[in-house]
């Protein structure tokens, strides 16, 4: 029997595709009403809910000639989960809205959904609702919900002089991967993939909060740029220790040599690794490494006591 062409979104219709994306999916205990009604119902045992939202636009935040739809789905969930982690909360649920051309094959949309569900389920969370609309290009908007577990949220504004700066996760890999993709440089498969799908250190946000983290954020725009947000909000100087970043530099040095690039620019100014940055009054918990110190002074970020002359990170409207 000859199989016909794959049906498209336009041919199948919104509700048939949504049913295909949600049927048979697991639902954690915190979700009492999942997809299928006008709204989901998610437990909030703490009495408060951490909420964050982010958007990915085809051609700006991902390219479908580089990424599979599955990769895009994982990335969309991961970068939103990192924001919840950065508040010291645990992710409970996601609401996802997707825009795509009517000519998009349903199979590609299913692949996107599979990637989203795989990343959400790895966190012990689920996708509880959303929307699907026609759009000239792929646009993915995700809202993430999190449980603070009775703890106060870890804000950007709590750092104080005398604290240490620590990181959970790795730096510079996504920016290195972007350079490889942009310049058509083959090889370095792991680094190339790190640009397509980030690897936030899931669970470390909660551990940081339990260990008394004073301030926290994730590395979405770049180490210097995101640490600068903490410095500004807290009114302190963040002084990075270059030697403490040596493992990140060494991890991308071979790639930098192949690309004719500066590995320091990737580690200091590269975003989308979604590592977590936090300031602790004493030492950090296991899974974190100290990379600098908080000092009194102007709200700025230094490297070994001096300003870094390069770009601090991503600018949304450049």
Task: Please describe what this structure looks like.
- This protein is an alpha+beta fold and 318 residues long.
- The chain has 2 domains: 137 residues, 2-Layer Sandwich (60s Ribosomal Protein L30, Chain: A); 140 residues, PurM-like C-terminal domain (Phosphoribosyl-aminoimidazole Synthetase, Chain A, domain 2).
- It has 10 helices and 12 strands.
- The strands form 3 sheets. It has a 6-stranded mixed sheet with strand order 8-10-7-11-9-12, sandwiched between helices. The protein has a 4-stranded mixed sheet with strand order 3-6-4-5.
- Strand 1 and strand 2 form a beta hairpin.
- The radius of gyration is 20 Å and the shape is globular.
Concise structural overview:
The protein has 318 residues and is an alpha+beta fold.
The average pLDDT value, as a whole number, equals 92
CATH architectural label of the largest domain = Alpha-Beta Complex
Low-confidence segments, given as residue ranges, are none
Give the overall shape. globular
Topology pattern, helix = H, strand = E: HHEEEHEHEEEHHHEHEHHEEE
Helix run count: 10
Quote the CATH topology of the largest domain: Phosphoribosyl-aminoimidazole Synthetase, Chain A, domain 2
Number of domains: 2
Kindly estimate the percentage of residues that lie in beta strands according to DSSP: 15-25%
Taking strands numbered 1, 2, ... along the chain, how are they ordered across the largest sheet?
8-10-7-11-9-12
Q: Give the biggest beta sheet.
A: 6 strands, mixed
Gyration radius over CA: 20 Å
CATH superfamily membership of the largest domain, which one? PurM-like C-terminal domain
Q: Tell me the number of strands.
A: 12
Q: Give the helix proportion (percent range).
A: 25-40%
The helix/strand class is alpha+beta
Distance between the termini: 52 Å
The level-1 CATH class of the largest domain: Alpha Beta
């Amino acid at each position: 029997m000859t199989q016909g062409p794959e049906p498209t979104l336009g041919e199948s219709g919104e509700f048939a595709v949504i049913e295909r994306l949600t049927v048979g999916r697991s639902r954690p205990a915190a979700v009492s009403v999942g997809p299928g009604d006008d709204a989901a119902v998610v437990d909030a045992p703490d009495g408060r809910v951490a909420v964050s939202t982010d958007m990915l636009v085809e051609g700006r935040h991902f390219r479908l000639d580089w990424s599979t739809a599955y990769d895009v789905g994982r990335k969309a969930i991961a970068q939103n989960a990192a924001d919840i982690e950065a508040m010291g909360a645990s992710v409970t649920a996601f609401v996802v809205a997707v825009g795509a051309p009517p000519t998009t094959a349903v199979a590609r949309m299913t692949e996107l959904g599979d990637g989203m569900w795989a990343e959400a389920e790895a966190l012990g969370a689920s996708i509880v609702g959303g929307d699907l609309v026609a759009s000239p290009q792929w646009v993915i908007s995700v809202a993430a919900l999190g449980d603070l577990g009775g703890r106060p949220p870890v804000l950007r504004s709590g750092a104080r002089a005398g604290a240490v700066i620590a990181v959970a996760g790795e730096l510079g890999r996504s920016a290195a991967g972007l350079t490889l993709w942009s310049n058509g440089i083959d090889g370095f498969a792991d680094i190339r993939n790190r640009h397509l799908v980030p690897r936030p250190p899931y669970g470390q946000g909660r551990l940081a909060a339990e260990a008394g983290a004073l301030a926290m954020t994730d590395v979405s725009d770049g180490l210097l740029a995101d640490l600068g947000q903490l410095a500004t909000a807290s009114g302190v100087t963040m002084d990075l220790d270059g030697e403490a970043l040596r493992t990140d530099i060494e991890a991308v040095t071979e790639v930098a040599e192949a690309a004719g690039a500066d590995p320091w620019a990737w580690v200091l100014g590269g975003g989308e690794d979604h590592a977590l940055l936090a300031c602790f009054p004493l030492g950090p918990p296991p899974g974190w490494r100290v990379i600098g110190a908080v000092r009194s002074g102007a709200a700025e970020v230094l490297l070994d006591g001096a300003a870094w002359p390069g770009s601090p990170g991503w600018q949304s409207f450049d």
